[in-house]
Amino acid sequence: MNEQSDISAALIKALRDARHVCILTGAGVSAESGVPTFRDAQDGLWAKYKPQELATPEAFIKDPALIWRWYRWRRDLVAEANPNPGHYAIAELEQRMPRLTLVTQNVDGLHQRAGSKHVIEFHGNLFDDRCFSDRTLHTADDSLDVPTCPDCGDYLRPGVVWFGEAIPESALNDACAATTDCDVFLSIGTSSLVYPAAGLTDLASENGACVVEINPIPTTHSARFDFAIAGNAGLVLPELLESLAP
Ligand code: OAD
Asked: Lower CB density within 10 Å: C or N end of the chain?
């Protein structure tokens, strides 16, 4: 048992016995890397900016140069950030478990940079450039305020999922399949307010998984979890990993 975080022996046993662990991460996992969350009252991006003015297809059509400026600012911010102990612990857990599926709402690529191999990017990737018309992947000419698609001439856009848009089909299918199949489901650093990602927790629970939340602030979903560990991912996850050592 661990003195610092409330990691129960029952949770450690569930993880030791697990055949398949599924992890859903949100912006809180990257907070300790200096990447702002969305809904933190002080520093969250949506406390300073309006999502409907920056994260919708309508906003892009209205002012693509503004949207590109904002996403390039976020790209620069993330490029200067580094994975934190929470990201590394998840990557290490993937090595230790018979099977681990990582579903992330984060678009920052920090899980991959920490060594996670199989990452389902539920909301896309901040560094991808996609054609606004057909979403094919291209490389933007960063000297242009608004880069264009070399195939059709339409604008390129950042490869993230905006409000009102569908989750990429393969990401949604793979995430649902893993959630349905897993024995333990960990929801880490997410406010659980954005669907369909937030619905994965219920899906896991309905299918008999042990569901666990790691978050310093209880969410509206907390009561539905089998275990809710109050703490920062960068502290709790290394402790959890240590608790699993034989
Ligand atoms: P939010 O900003 O909504 O929530 C971040 C959560 O992380 C909060 O519950 C915090 O309490 C928690 N948190 C903060 N620091 C933490 C730490 N060190 N360790 C663990 N947890 C911590 O971010 P998301 O839930 O990821 O969508 O937001 C979901 C989606 O809403 C995002 O993917 C984005 C946004 O609009 C799109 O861009 C499509």
From this structure: C
Across 220-235, average pLDDT: 91
Token pair 């297809």 in the structure block, residue: 57
* 224: CB partners within 8 A, 6+ apart: 201, 202, 205, 211
Q: pLDDT (tens digit, 9 = 90+) per residue, 60-99?
A: 999 999 999 999 999 999 999 999 999 999 999 999 999 9
Q: Whose CA is nearest to atom 29 of ligand 1?
A: 194
| Atom from ligand 1 closest to the CA of residue 27 | 26
Using the CB atoms, write b or e for 112-139: b if 16+ within 10 Å.
Answer: bbbebeebbbbbbbbbbbbbbeeeeebe
Q: Which domains does the chain have, with CATH numbers?
A: 1-35+83-123+166-246 (3.40.50.1220), 37-80+127-160 (3.30.1600.10)
Q: Is the CB of 84 under 6 A from ligand 1?
A: no
3-state SS assignment for residue 82: coil
Work out the mean pLDDT of the chain and round it to a whole number.
Answer: 94
CA of 192 to the centre of ligand 1 (A): 8
* Of the candidates 168, 196, 193, the residue with the CA atom closest to the CA atom of residue 37: 193
The answer to whether 37 and 233 are in contact (CB under 8 A) is: no
- C-beta separation of 118 from 111 below 8 A: no
DSSP 184-236: EEEEES--S-STTTTHHHHHHHHTT-EEEEE-SS--TTGGG-SEEE-S-HHHH
More confident site: 149 or 3: 149
Sign of CA dihedral 155, 26, 16, 177: negative
**Residue 221 annotated among the catalytic residues of the structure:** no
